[in-house]
Structure formats: structure tokens, C-alpha cells
């Protein structure tokens, strides 16, 4: 996920064309025309403090000059900036850096939710912002062909980052003033009762995957299973050749009452029985 930030709408010269008559500071006498520069400064701030993985977004207003004697034009924008690892570190995989393909997938998902399925993504016909690399810049178009957003890699010249910093990716999307109604959001209340966790080390034959085991556990653990994760893999001394010891953590929680050990133990017994019958998987002694 991304963290939401709120940055001031005031900016230095060159980042906006609406001049403030009575600015708060002399170094920021304009109103911003883009949210990207402010987000980039937040990335610089984080990296100066050793944070390599930064994911930020902002819902804010963009300002442009109106006609003679008219107030500035205001437009709602959504912008985001990302750098570092594409996923949190985990023992089961190598770290991978956030890439252009990840950015494009994010932009496609958001644009289709905001403007509908008629939006398209391409890399021609638009003017790339000065912050972005023109060779790695894509544009969002509506069904009528209007460009409503862009995304790409931030150029090295546009940022003041440490030498160890990876590529920085950003996008900005103009939002419609009357967006279409999205899917209904269902809010689940926070749990009132404590959870009960069980760790389960299983011996998996070569032909059985951890995904198959996870699916079997979810089917047989009962409705109180709240979460399931793999947290350890062991192959070596004490384990038959070709067999893997994979450890799963199950978290049970009822929305109606505090679960007793007897009930959780019953669920665990059902899980082990189903695993042995369906997959030939047994608990590690």
C-alpha cells in the first residue's frame, strides 16, 4: 500500500503559473500546477533519513491561470511516487525493485476505476513533464482521446538523492469533477475478541505445493480462520530426502466470542485429517 501525504499548495517559481499576491514566504510565491514536485521533495526527505522504500500518494488541487480578470482554474488531481522494493522483504524470495511494469499496472487499475474501461495507455502524442524521463513516460487517455494523466521514471537531474537510491517512479492523474459511482464499500468492524494462533510444521512430498496445502487448510479450518501464512522452510538433517518441512501459522478469531483452546484444537485436528486424506501431508514430529 501507499501512505497518504498532504503537502502545501504553495511552490517556488517554475512549478506554477498562478502568483500569490501576499505569499506566506518569498521562496514559494506561486500555487502549484502539479503535485509531483512536492511528492519528490518528500522522497528526498525520507531518503536523507535512510528510508529506502518510499510509497506516497496525495489527493490535492492543481491551479492554472484563468482568463483575464477571472480566478484561477482549480482541478482535483491524484498523484503518487514510489521507489525501492516492490514488496516487503520476505525470507522466501529475493528482493525486487519497483519497475515500470508495476507503475503501469497501478495506473491502469486506477484510471479504469476513475474513468471506466474506455481509458487507454500509450507512450505517444503527449508532452512529458520535465520531471519525467521522456523515454520512459506513458499517458492516460479517455475514450474521447483526451490526455488526463501521465506516468514514468523521474529523471536523475530532477532529484537530489543519495548514490544508493534506486529509480523513482511517479504518476499524476486529473480527476473528473463528477466521478462515476464505484463499487459499494463494506466496512468490517474491528475485532472485539482476542485471536488464537497455532503453528503447524508439515512434511510436504515433492509433488505437493504450499499453495495446495494452504487451500486445503482454508477449506477445512472452519469459519473462524482469520489468517494463514507460511513463515519457515527447512530441508536438511532429520528430514527425509526429497521432503520439505514447511511451517504455517494459523490465526483463529470469532466475531461472537472468545475461542477456547478446545475449539481451536478441534479445528486443527480437522485440518490435519484433511491434509493427510487429500494430499498425503503429515505433521512433522
SSE inventory with pairings:
Blueprint: E1 3-4, E2 10-11, E3 18-19, E4 30-31, H1 36-47, E5 54-64, E6 73-83, H2 100-115, E7 120-122, E8 132-141, E9 147-154, E10 168-174, E11 196-204, H3 210-220, E12 225-234, E13 244-252, H4 261-279, E14 282-283
Parallel strand pairs: 1-5
Antiparallel strand pairs: 2-4, 3-4, 5-6, 6-10, 7-8, 8-9, 9-10, 11-13, 11-14, 12-13
Brief overview, please?
The protein has 285 residues and is of the alpha+beta class. It has helices at residues 36-47, 100-115, 210-220, 261-279, and strands at 3-4, 10-11, 18-19, 30-31, 54-64, 73-83, 120-122, 132-141, 147-154, 168-174, 196-204, 225-234, 244-252, 282-283.
Gross morphology is elongated
What fraction, in percent, of the residue positions are helical? 10-25%
Q: How many strands, what sense, and barrel or not for the largest sheet? A: 7 strands, mixed
Q: Whole-Å distance between the termini?
A: 38 Å
Q: Regarding CATH, which class of the largest domain? A: Alpha Beta
How many alpha or pi helices? 4
Class based on secondary structure composition and strand pairing: alpha+beta
The helix/strand series, from N terminus to C terminus, equals EEEEHEEHEEEEEHEEHE
Structural domain count: 2
| Fourth-tier CATH superfamily name of the largest domain | Bira Bifunctional Protein, Domain 2
Low-pLDDT stretches are none
**Adjacency order of strands in the biggest sheet:** 1-5-6-10-9-8-7
Name of the CATH architecture of the largest domain: 2-Layer Sandwich
Round the mean pLDDT to the nearest integer and report it.
Answer: 91
CATH names the topology of the largest domain as BirA Bifunctional Protein, domain 2
The count of DSSP E runs of length 2 or more, i.e. the number of strands, is 14
